[in-house]
């Protein structure tokens, strides 16, 4: 007697359906894992920058300054289309390397007509912000002498998300920025 060996059409459809269900479960988890790894990298880079800032302050008796860089037209970032970045004199990378190179914000996507330094984490020196730019002195008391800001999974620095810290319990891709300040690594102060 001859018996035919092989799979029936129903068996093949069941296998394909199982594979599709497993893929539907795996792909979102993979994408969330990528987001979680970028969040971890951002926090680690901010921790390294914080260490470099404190080492700089011990050596120079002041925190680094910053300057404003114009953004491309139509972007909704900070104060009137200008972004604060580490640049100019003095820097924390030269002539003494308090950090070997400036890390880039892993979430920030550089668009056409934007300067590469805009990929840096945003740095605020509160002494300068209060004394020269007229910011509320309470911000300096809340945050300390400096604040570092990354764009977070929504990839934006707009005013609506500026005071909100990123919280993964609101969903992996949720509003808020990844930031660190001198007084608290993730202070929950809004402004």
Proportion of beta-strand residues: 5-15%
Q: Note the run of SSEs as H and E.
A: HEEEHHEE
Q: Per the principal axes of the C-alpha atoms, what is the gross shape?
A: elongated
Cα-atom radius of gyration: 23 Å
Largest sheet: 3 strands, antiparallel
Oligomer: single chain
Query: Helical amount among residues, as a percent range?
Result: 25-40%
The total count of helices amounts to 3
What descriptive keywords fit this protein?
191 residues, alpha+beta, two-stranded antiparallel sheet, 3 helices, 5 strands, 34% helix, elongated
Topology:
Elements: H1 9-60, E1 67-70, E2 82-85, E3 122-125, H2 126-131, H3 137-143, E4 146-150, E5 178-181
Antiparallel strand pairs: 1-2, 3-4, 4-5
Describe the protein.
This protein is α+β, with helices and mostly antiparallel strands and 191 residues long. The protein has one domain (10-181). The chain is built from 3 helices and 5 strands. A 3-stranded antiparallel sheet has the order 3-4-5. It is elongated.
């Amino acid at each position: 007697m001859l018996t035919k060996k092989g799979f029936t059409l129903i068996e093949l459809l069941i296998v394909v359906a199982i594979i599709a269900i497993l893929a539907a479960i795996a792909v979102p988890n993979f994408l969330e894992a990528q987001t979680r790894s970028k969040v971890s990298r951002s926090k680690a880079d901010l921790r390294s920058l914080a260490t470099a800032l404190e080492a700089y302050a011990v050596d120079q008796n002041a925190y680094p300054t910053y300057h404003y860089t114009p953004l491309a037209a139509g972007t909704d970032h900070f104060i009137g289309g200008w972004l604060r970045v580490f640049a100019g004199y003095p820097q924390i990378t030269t002539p003494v390397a308090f950090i070997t190179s400036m890390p880039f914000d892993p979430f920030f996507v550089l668009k056409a007509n934007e300067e590469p330094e805009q990929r840096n984490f945003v740095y605020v020196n509160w002494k300068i912000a209060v004394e020269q730019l007229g910011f509320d002195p309470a911000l300096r008391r809340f945050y300390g002498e400096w604040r570092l800001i990354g764009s977070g999974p929504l990839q934006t620095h707009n005013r609506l998300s500026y005071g909100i810290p990123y919280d993964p319990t609101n969903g992996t891709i949720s509003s808020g920025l990844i930031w660190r300040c001198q007084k608290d690594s993730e202070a929950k102060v809004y402004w």
